Automatic annotation (TrEMBL):
<feature type="binding site">
    <location>
        <position position="195"/>
    </location>
    <ligand>
        <name>Fe cation 1</name>
    </ligand>
</feature>
<feature type="binding site">
    <location>
        <position position="278"/>
    </location>
    <ligand>
        <name>Fe cation 1</name>
    </ligand>
</feature>
<comment type="similarity">
    <text>Belongs to the fatty acid desaturase type 2 family.</text>
</comment>
<feature type="binding site">
    <location>
        <position position="245"/>
    </location>
    <ligand>
        <name>Fe cation 2</name>
    </ligand>
</feature>
<keyword id="KW-0275">Fatty acid biosynthesis</keyword>
<keyword id="KW-0479">Metal-binding</keyword>
<keyword id="KW-0443">Lipid metabolism</keyword>
<keyword id="KW-0150">Chloroplast</keyword>
<feature type="binding site">
    <location>
        <position position="154"/>
    </location>
    <ligand>
        <name>Fe cation 1</name>
    </ligand>
</feature>
<dbReference type="InterPro" id="IPR012348">
    <property type="entry name" value="RNR-like"/>
</dbReference>
<dbReference type="GO" id="GO:0009570">
    <property type="term" value="C:chloroplast stroma"/>
</dbReference>
<dbReference type="InterPro" id="IPR005067">
    <property type="entry name" value="Fatty_acid_desaturase-2"/>
</dbReference>
<comment type="subunit">
    <text>Homodimer.</text>
</comment>
<dbReference type="Pfam" id="PF03405">
    <property type="entry name" value="FA_desaturase_2"/>
</dbReference>
<dbReference type="GO" id="GO:0045300">
    <property type="term" value="F:stearoyl-[ACP] desaturase activity"/>
</dbReference>
<keyword id="KW-0934">Plastid</keyword>
<feature type="binding site">
    <location>
        <position position="281"/>
    </location>
    <ligand>
        <name>Fe cation 2</name>
    </ligand>
</feature>
Length: 412
């Protein structure tokens, strides 16, 4: 997980004018979804609360102002999955051990960041660092913005482990629970932890970026958290992670290709190696959803519809550097322009998942389930059409100063 990158509505909001992507398809915020959209929440009571802070809200603490809350208006729905559904995940315990944990790699066979970086204990360290810095001179500023945004997203990993542990029926109840679900979450986190570590060290050594500003952004982002709107439901949660792992696979794959094009083969290898991890994670999460479609097709279909109607928010959507209130949108716009992650990718991921789960062919659905099926199967072309229209309306020539690269201007 932990994609860099933008998402359809964010890119639309920034670059193309807010209404573009949203019109008729993606509901604008604030949008009170709690009463109707939970996958299996009919007749159930669940808590709905609301955060109302635009832009980042500062509170007076002693003499200093501290930003405590993200700059988003969002309704928060909790525990929308009926309690009896927890049994489904308990019953899948052995299945997860045999089918999901096999997608983890042992620590002894795993790559480590040090495999790709100059060895500080070697005599050649300084020369290797010099070479790294020379290679990085070929990387343009807009590419660096994308790479930094990807790195910051990876570095907010504590938030993603927290998110997985919000999910009813699969959370790690103790912090060292032996269940398959909890084991997966911890081992997945441990694998992911290398991603931000490696990118962070590379960017530190290259000397092209303002590390202090980047570190501030990471601290803000971890402090703000994220709101994927998964409502403590593992149905929504695993749909979300399926989508996100693929998004990160695409994004890191594109930064790898771009680095190769700039002649930095080591960086290309770094990004490509991370992308390969994301692909493996995608395989595991999509397998879980495939199983849910098999044993509980109606709930899973309604959850899929719910997730797509709400839009899949990006993990770093609350990023802030202490200066730019629209930092995520600006970062997303650069990623879109460079082709690192685009609105078209969003539609492609949706289409990929629809095919991966054979959604069109799923039977045994209620009438609501069939409507949900129809909605998700037709959605990708609609998103693409909206994207094309938005691109036509896009304002060209806007720039933004990014603190991550010493306030240099970058074309959006
Ligand atoms: Fe991942
Ligand atoms: Fe990652």
């Amino acid at each position: 997980m932990a994609s860099a990158v933008c998402l359809v509505e964010c890119m639309g909001a920034l670059k193309y004018g807010c209404s573009s992507m949203a019109a008729g398809l993606l509901p604008p915020t604030p949008f009170f979804h709690g009463a109707k959209l939970g996958p299996a929440n009919l007749g159930r009571s669940h808590k709905v609360s609301m955060t109302t802070t635009v832009p980042p809200k500062a509170k007076e603490v002693g003499k200093s102002k501290i930003h405590f809350q993200p700059h988003e208006v969002q309704e928060q729905v909790t525990h929308s999955m009926p309690p009896e559904k927890v049994e489904i995940f308990n019953s899948l315990e052995d299945w997860a051990e045999n089918n999901i944990l096999i997608h983890l790699k042992s620590v002894e066979k795993s790559w480590q960041p040090q495999d790709f970086l100059p060895d500080p204990s070697s005599e050649g360290f300084i020369d290797e660092v010099k070479e790294l810095r020379e290679r990085s001179l070929e990387l343009p500023d807009d590419y660096l913005v994308c790479l930094v945004g990807d790195m910051i997203t990876e570095e907010a990993l504590p938030t993603y482990q927290t998110m997985l542990n919000t999910l009813d029926g699969v959370r790690d109840e103790t912090g060292a629970s032996p269940t398959s679900w909890a084991t997966w979450t911890r081992m997945w986190t441990a694998e992911e932890n290398r991603h931000g570590d490696l990118l962070n060290k590379y960017l530190y050594l290259c000397g092209r970026v303002d590390m202090r500003q980047i570190e501030k952004t990471i601290q803000y982002l971890v402090g703000f958290g994220m709101d994927p709107r998964t409502e403590n439901s593992p149905y929504l949660g695993f749909l979300y992670t399926s989508f996100q792992e693929r998004a990160t696979f695409i994004s890191h794959g594109n930064t790898a290709r771009f680095a190769k094009g700039c002649g930095d083969l080591k960086l290309a290898q770094i990004c490509g190696t991370i992308a390969a991890d994301e692909k493996r994670h995608e395989t595991a999460y999509t397998k879980i959803v495939e199983k849910l479609f098999e044993i509980d097709p109606d709930t899973t279909m309604l959850a899929f519809e719910d997730m797509m109607r709400k839009k899949v928010s990006m993990p770093a959507h609350l990023m802030y550097d202490g200066q730019d209130d629209n930092l995520f949108e600006h970062f997303s716009a650069v990623a879109q322009r460079l082709g690192v992650y685009t609105a078209r990718d969003y539609a492609d991921i949706l289409e990929f998942l629809v095919k991966r789960w054979n959604v069109e062919k799923i039977e045994d659905l209620s009438s609501k389930g069939r409507k949900a099926q129809d909605y998700v199967c037709r959605l990708a072309p609609r998103i693409r059409r909206l994207d094309e229209r938005a691109q036509e309306r896009a304002k060209q020539g806007q720039t933004c100063a990014f603190s991550w690269i010493f306030n240099k201007d970058v074309l959006l």
